[in-house]
Amino acid sequence: MSDLSHPQDLVIKGATVLTKTGLVRADVVTCNGVVVALGPDLDAGLGARVLDGSGCHVIPALVDLHTHLREPGGEDAETVMSGSRAAAVGGFGAVVAMPNTNPPIDSASMVRDVMALGKDALVDVAVAGTITVGRKGERLSPFGEMAEAGVRICTDDGSGVQDAALMRRALEYASSVGITLAQHCEDASLAACGVMHEGGWSSRLGLAGIPAEAEETMAARDIALASRAGARLHLMHLSTAGSMALLAMAKQRGAPVSAEVTPHHLSLTDAELSSFDPRFKVNPPLRSEKDRQALLMAVADGVVDAIATDHAPHPAHTKQAPLDEASFGMTGLETAFSVVWGQLGHLGIEAVWRLMSQRPARIAGLVGHGGPIAEGSAANLVVVDLEASWTADPSRGVTKSTNSPFAGRSMKGKVKHTVHAGEAVVVDGEPSR
Amino acid sequence: MSQHGEFPRHLLSVADLGREGIEEILRLAESFEEVSSRDIPRVPALRGRSVALMFFEDSTRTRLSFDTAAKRLSAETLVFTAASSSLSKGESLRDTVQTVSAMGVDAMVVRHRCAGVPAQVSRWTDAAVLNAGDGWHEHPTQALLDCFTLARHRGNGTDLSGMRIAIVGDIVHSRVARSDIVAFVSLGAKVILVAPPTLLPSDMEGWPVETVGDLDEVLGTLDAVYLLRLQRERMAANLVPSLREYAHRFGMDASRMARLPAHGLVMHPGPMNRGVEISSEVADDPRCVATEQVSNGIAVRMAVLFMLLGTPAAKEALRAGSPRRPGSLLPDQESLHSSVPGAKRSAGV
Fold it and tell me: Domain for residue A369, yes or no?
């Protein structure tokens, strides 16, 4: 597919475009992966591919800070290629691949291997490294070597770094090589063998709970440690009202902290577990309605920097198991934009762009992503129809896995086309390769 | 929605039944109780039906009780036990269920150490699913037999109103407590939970119960005290300091027995930890009805199986008849064949 590295000219006709000066009605012309013209009634010339954007918005392609591509080791759930196709269909132009693969991405050579897998992908695949060797929480991963290989984010995601002294040293050291540490905030002793949020529903259902404090105690600890170290800390998939309060306080004090929330925590609650359906088993767990409302408010108030999917594909049989054996996690790439638009559409498309593209690109240090769209900017674009409604159907999804919590739910707003490096990788919702 | 009238298709939780469903089971159990006293304790009510006893978690008494109940109704039973996790053998829970389902069973009685498994199973099979205890969630037939036992001693039909029942001990890890609370309250009783905060669910907002930390505070006001088994793991998890302290604060012993009103019952779902939640004197006291609970379990489980698997005509016949004269409706093994609606696996269960 090397011919695709020289994409043809492309024009998106008739859409509203997110530019430096706001939303304007314009056509967008790209050439060799760069936006070359922006204006009304443009013509790309003979041979140019025309994408219909009428009634739609063009915004910079989305950037996902938190994607599990499962390769190597989990290829029955997802591969870098299949995950990148799902990402493209979801309107993403770049994803940060989580390092909790098997083996974990804890060395420069592992980083290069996974980057190579993403070379022909439909989106840019940035690779995160682990904080500790083997994700064992014992010894620091080689941050310097991984940084030289291109890593900008390190995380032991899947579990939190339990040892406070180790986390302190990790923050101090990583800051010197330009790496941001991303923490999965979860005190293992408090979370124990919980399978859902500890609250009214877990009490009624007799399921072991994961208390909000399992997240909040580690978030508080790491905010304190990062502030002292002066190192950048990113808090992943925060899920509780208490975490939102801690984050707001940290930001007020100017702590070097950013944070993400997920579409599923913005839209679903622990009440879903009353069906005992393991599709709703995720870590951190779906929280209470009060927590969900606190997340929505914190996003609206600008306290939360980014929305990230935590796309976590799993083979079907691991979800057809008792809740205490079933895997944690849900897919999310293909539904993220619509779920977020359904919850936050009232904030406007520019707000969603900042949460799902601009700030994630900045946090991940991704060049050519995040926009806004201008002549000369990289042609990583997504065309979204904000009025479209559709029904999520994981059996028709592009990801290899079907563990979507949104199956059968009606969605508002839909990704129509995705342009990656000037190539129309998704047209009318279908991946082009 | 159910071909059996208003009775639910599955019994996954006590709440599925509602007050009327519970009362119906209790009345029916009374009819079936007489069967057990016959020379040949067997009626053909479910002849030709097959019941799979799927015990993913060890439980001798509940399995034997269901097995006996099914056999007294002339149903066949298939026993499946698997202590280890299905995933560790490479077979998913769904595979296991579909395998047993493919054998053509009419009902699955499911016991599993994880909450929700019976509900999951019900989505993967056409058989009626009966929850025989799922993790800390529910144990509906235990609650029904407990109601039966209480109602028998109360002596006012199925009504428990005005009774004060304390459930004592490890509520948070108790499927019995979760089912009993719903069932007792449905029949009009007042439920008081007695436990330290570490053994209570973290959020009980909306639960129709009163909660106290001191058994002695309420003991003199109770009509029944229901003791839960305290497992040794609870010490390791620091939920209670020691068995000795637990026994001291929450155990039922002779001195507490003396303070329980004279008519007050002591109940226990078994197996009992003598010396922990119950002293030996109390366990052997005539007011302790633990063994009565066990025998009532058979009649109650017969009633539940019959409600889930009996043909509509058979159920109509029973409903129309007087529960005081069940003999005419439940002929014995020798005399029947034509008179009783039986037994074809046709009712589209």
Answer: no
Q: Could you tell me if A339 and A388 lie in one domain? A: no
Give yes or no: residues A29 and A158 share one domain. Answer: no
* CATH number of the CATH domain containing A144: 3.20.20.140
- Note whether A162 and A24 are same-domain residues: no
Residue B226 lies in a domain: yes
**pLDDT tens-place string over residues A215-269:** 999 999 999 999 999 999 999 999 999 999 999 999 999 999 999 999 999 999 9
- Are both B146 and B280 inside the same structural domain? yes
Residue B202 to residue A325, Cβ atoms within 8 A:
no
- pTM of the full structure: 0.94
Residues B178 and B323 in one domain: no
Least CB–CB distance from B115: residue in A276, A317, A321: A276
Q: What is the structure's pLDDT at B311?
A: 87
Whether residue B223 is contained in a domain is answered as yes
| Pairs of CB atoms within 8 A across A/B | 80
Q: Is A258 within the bounds of a domain?
A: yes
**Are A89 and A431 contacting, i.e. CB atoms less than 8 angstroms apart?**
yes
Q: Which residues of A touch B (CB under 8 A)?
A: 198-200, 202-209, 211, 275-278, 317-318, 320-325
> Region B247-272: what's the mean pLDDT?
97
Sort A27 into a burial class: Cβ within 10 Å, 0-12 / 13-18 / 19+: buried
Question: pLDDT tens digits for A157-167?
Answer: 999 999 999 99
CB neighbour list of residue B90: distance below 8 Å, 6 or more residues apart: none
Residues 6+ apart with CB under 8 A from A127: A96, A97, A99, A105, A111, A114, A115, A118, A150, A151
Cα–Cα dist B254/B61, whole Å: 27
Percentage of chain B modeled with pLDDT above 70: 87
Residues of chain B contacting residue A202, judged by C-beta atoms under 8 Å apart = 201-203
Catalytic residue ranges of A: 310
Which candidate, B89, B65, B60, places its Cα nearest to that of B77?
B65
Q: Region B143-164: what's the mean pLDDT?
A: 97
CB-based contact A219:A261 (threshold 8 Å): no
A interface test, pick of B84, B179, B202 with most A CB neighbours within 10 Å: B202
Minimum-distance CB partner of A322 among B93, B95, B175: B93
Domain extent at residue A421: 2-58+376-431
State the residue range of the domain holding B82: 14-138+295-328
The pLDDT tens digits for B92-135 are: 889 889 999 999 999 999 999 999 999 999 999 999 999 999 99
Element (H, E) at B213: none
Residue A5 has pLDDT above 50, yes or no: no
Minimal-distance CA residue of chain B relative to A194: B114
Q: A322 and B119 in contact by Cβ < 8 A?
A: no
Token pair in block for residue A135: 């994700």
Total count of domains within chain A: 2
Helix (H, G, I), strand (E, B) or coil at A38: strand
Residue of A nearest to B111 (CA): A322
Residue in chain B lying closest to A201 (CA)? B203
Kindly determine whether residue A317 and residue B134, on different chains, have CB atoms separated by under 8 Å: no
- Alpha-carbon distance of A341 to A307, in angstroms, equals 11
Residue A206 to residue B112, Cβ atoms within 8 A: no
Sign of CA dihedral A100, A102, A107, A111: negative
The reply to whether residue B137 touches residue A206, judged by beta carbons under 8 angstroms, is: yes
Using CA coordinates, name the residue in chain A closest to B119: A276
Sort out which chain B residues have CB atoms less than 8 A from A189's CB and list them.
none
Looking at beta carbons, which residues of chain B come within 8 Å of A199?
202-203
Q: Is pLDDT of B340 > 60?
A: no
B84 lies in some domain: yes
CATH of the domain at A46: 2.30.40.10
